[in-house]
Amino acid sequence: FAGILALVIFQIGCTQQPSTDLSETAFIPKPVSIDVTGNSFELKESSVIYYEESVEGLQTVAEYLALEIKRTSGVNLKVESTNATPKKGVYFTVVNEDSKLDTEGYELNIGKKLIAIKAKTVAGCFYGVQTLLQIIPEKLHAEDPIEFATGIIRDFPEFGYRGAMLDVSRHFFNVEEVKQFIDFLAMYKMNILHLHLSDDQGWRIEIKSWPKLTEIGGSTEVGGGTGGFYTQEQYTELVKYAQERQITIIPEIDMPGHTNAALASYAELNCDGKARELYTGTEVGFSTFCTDKEITYQFIDDVIRELAALTPGPYIHIGGDESHVTAHDDYVYFVNRVQPIVLKYGKKVIGWDEIANAELVDDATVQFWADVENTTTGVEKGARVIMSPAARAYLDMQYDSTTHLGLHWAGYIEVDHGYTWNPATLVPGVTKENIIGVEAPLWSETVTNMDEVEFLVFPRLPGYAEIGWTAPEKRDWNEYKMRLAKHGKRFEDLGINFYKSKRVPWE
Ligand code: TNX
């Protein structure tokens, strides 16, 4: 009897039959609603992925799904346009009138013959794809059928801004590495990549009117490595790659502090007219642009003009943090002069919470990282807020005292600590109405390669994605950790070097 039982268990374990209960899938972020219909849909080699012909950008989404299915299973599905709902296969459609669908929302209807993904926007369809992909195991064998449990998922995000930041200044990450980072965000329906493009240790974006920024300022990084920079063509390639994944890149030029790389490249930007030495250490707060020289503002005008031309997204980030050697009045004067330059080139201003000490222009956004008073001042001045609390959301904070990568000036952030906070109640006086969303920054003083990026990003990133997407009353650590545990297999199959936190019951 025991032998037969063992055989039965062995067979169940081996047949790879997926559950037909859609609600058992460990989705991250957790969808708004799942209705289970208890059947299964089988994707065959002959299945076609259709997209509504008249919708611009929908073909890219359909092709993205085909490529992901090919990557995981080796199966090559055909992608075709249509102007009528097909009877079988996969079908993408964009509808204008459905009032139940939010701008970024989607409805994923998995029937026995047809998977229909409906949304108001192409972005919504893309999020439907990400949900669908979480139903398929990350690695399939060619002979395995690709089965989907049937049911209907209706879903939309809590916040419109769901992002992460990558500091490419302290250590440089090349185009391929940034693309990989973008893929991580896309998997979890994040829609913002903030790139920290300049700091004391390196200037990373080509500015054609000031070429020494990258020739000199781009040649270093923390620890003495050779640095690097993106040509404008490479940067445009990144913007496009992100766009295809519904991600907006927000470029940051940090100023007036954190500017040593620029001050080393051009002597005239210094008050004493002398170029600074290049810097490869990790101190902060020692550099400043000369706020009372006109050339400073001509320089910034050129930089923002060129950057805005490379930026289809609505925002330019002007930094503004830790300008410890800029006198307060000079700082305020500087931020007041720089903001209109951003507006002049058709973009909106974002700055770290310190910029709230200046007068804020219309539509300015302050990024809360440490100072509650700055942030509430910003709100009083009419600004909106991005929540990036260092003690909860900094991806460069160590997990605990035994994990060595990262810093701990804002404390240790174990996976549960990073997950169990509510952006709308964390800072008294800053409510949901003031907040556009959540961003998890990865500063790179200690991070030198993608293996190290992955260790700090995973498994915390899915949690920040869920905080941005899923309403707080639907989030609970004890339930979330079970879903996260199932994603461990996915991380392994993707070759991601993740931190195996003891607080997560990995399978
Ligand atoms: C503070 S957060 C900084 C960065 C550092 C980071 C390290 C912020 C706006 N400024 O310059 O890289 O801490 O965690």
From TrEMBL:
Q: Which parts of the sequence belong to the Beta-hexosaminidase bacterial type N-terminal domain? A: 27-155
Q: Which reaction does it catalyse?
A: Hydrolysis of terminal non-reducing N-acetyl-D-hexosamine residues in N-acetyl-beta-D-hexosaminides
Signal sequence range: none
Q: Which domain of life is it from?
A: Bacteria
Q: Which Gene Ontology cellular component annotation is one that this UniProt entry carries? A: membrane
Its EC number is: 3.2.1.52
Give the record's keywords alphabetically: Glycosidase, Hydrolase
Give the annotated active site: E322
The cross-references to Pfam families, in alphabetical order and at most eight, read: Glyco_hydro_20 (PF00728), Glyco_hydro_20b (PF02838)
Q: Which GO terms describe its molecular function?
A: beta-N-acetylhexosaminidase activity
Q: Is Mitochondrion among the key words of this record?
A: no
Xref: InterPro entries: Beta_hexosaminidase_sua/sub, GH, Glyco_hydro_20_cat, Hex-like_dom2, HEX_bac_N
Q: Which residues form the Glycoside hydrolase family 20 catalytic domain?
A: 159-471
**Single GO biological process annotation from the record:** carbohydrate metabolic process
Q: Which PANTHER family match?
A: BETA-HEXOSAMINIDASE, BETA-N-ACETYLHEXOSAMINIDASE
**Stated family:** Belongs to the glycosyl hydrolase 20 family.
**Name the UniProt record assigns to this protein:** beta-N-acetylhexosaminidase
